[in-house]
């Protein structure tokens, strides 16, 4: 199987999240999970000052662009290119050019594999962050985002919470 790379897709401004949702729906419908691995709209925290109050909000790093980690072939190119709101891939002419390691580093996208000592079904303890001192069972692992999803009891209900690998340890 060919290697997956990160590509940049140009969208109508303001349509980034709609394009992400549409591509993810198409991946599910056409069973392209093995070829289109991740769709991402890069966000950054920005501190705004309104009426004398400091407020942290998330803003798009690149308005009008969506990042896609995929294996480039005719099917995946066609699916992404013909998604409503997409104007094309970034690259010379119609040929998409993958991002290099140097270009991906400032975006916070890690390509190296991280090995962890827990797996789905294991009980883990959160040792840092908002959910510190919480214990939960791993429901899902996402190695590309380096997160684990655990169920946490919140207001008497089981609620799925996504936690960074760095914030947990195996019990």
Mean pLDDT: 84
Give the end-to-end Cα distance, rounded to a whole number of Å: 37 Å
Our count of domains comes out at 2
Quickly give the CATH architecture of the largest domain.
2-Layer Sandwich
Task: Kindly report the CATH topology of the largest domain.
Answer: Alpha-Beta Plaits
Q: Based on helices, strands and strand pairing, what is the structural class?
A: alpha+beta
Largest sheet: 5 strands, antiparallel
Flag low-confidence runs.
Answer: none
Global geometry: globular
Cα-atom Rg, whole angstroms?
Answer: 18 Å
- DSSP strand tally: 11
Query: What is the CATH H-level superfamily of the largest domain?
Result: NusG, N-terminal domain
Oligomer: single chain
- Helix % is 10-25%
- Can you list the strand order of the major beta sheet? 10-9-8-7-11
Q: In words, what does this structure look like?
A:
With 171 residues, the chain is of the alpha+beta class. It has 2 domains: 5-107, NusG, N-terminal domain (Alpha-Beta Plaits, 2-Layer Sandwich), CATH 3.30.70.940; 123-170, SH3 type barrels (Roll), CATH 2.30.30. 16% of the residues lie in helices and 40% in strands. The chain contains 3 helices and 11 strands; from the N terminus they run βαββββαβαβββββ. It has helices at 16-30, 74-81, 101-104; strands spanning 5-11, 36-40, 43-50, 53-60, 65-70, 86-89, 123-126, 135-142, 147-154, 157-164, 168-170. The strands form 3 sheets. Strands 10-9-8-7-11 form a 5-stranded antiparallel beta sheet, with no helix packed on it. The radius of gyration is 18 Å and the shape is globular.
């Amino acid at each position: 199987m060919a290697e997956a790379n990160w590509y940049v897709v140009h969208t109508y401004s303001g349509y980034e999240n709609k394009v992400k949702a549409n591509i993810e729906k198409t991946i599910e419908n056409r069973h392209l999970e093995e070829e289109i691995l991740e769709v991402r709209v890069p966000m950054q925290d920005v501190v705004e000052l309104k009426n004398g109050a400091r407020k942290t909000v998330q803003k798009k790093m690149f308005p009008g662009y969506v990042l896609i980690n995929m294996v480039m072939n005719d099917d995946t190119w066609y699916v992404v290119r013909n998604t409503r709101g997409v104007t094309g891939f970034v690259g010379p002419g119609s040929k998409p050019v993958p991002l290099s390691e140097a270009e991906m580093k400032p975006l916070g996208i890690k390509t190296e594999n991280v090995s962890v000592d827990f797996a789905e079904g294991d009980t883990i303890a959160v040792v840092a962050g908002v959910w510190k001192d919480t214990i939960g069972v791993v429901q899902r692992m996402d190695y590309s985002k380096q997160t684990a999803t655990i169920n946490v009891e919140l207001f008497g209900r089981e609620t799925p919470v996504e936690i960074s690998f760095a914030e947990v340890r195996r019990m």
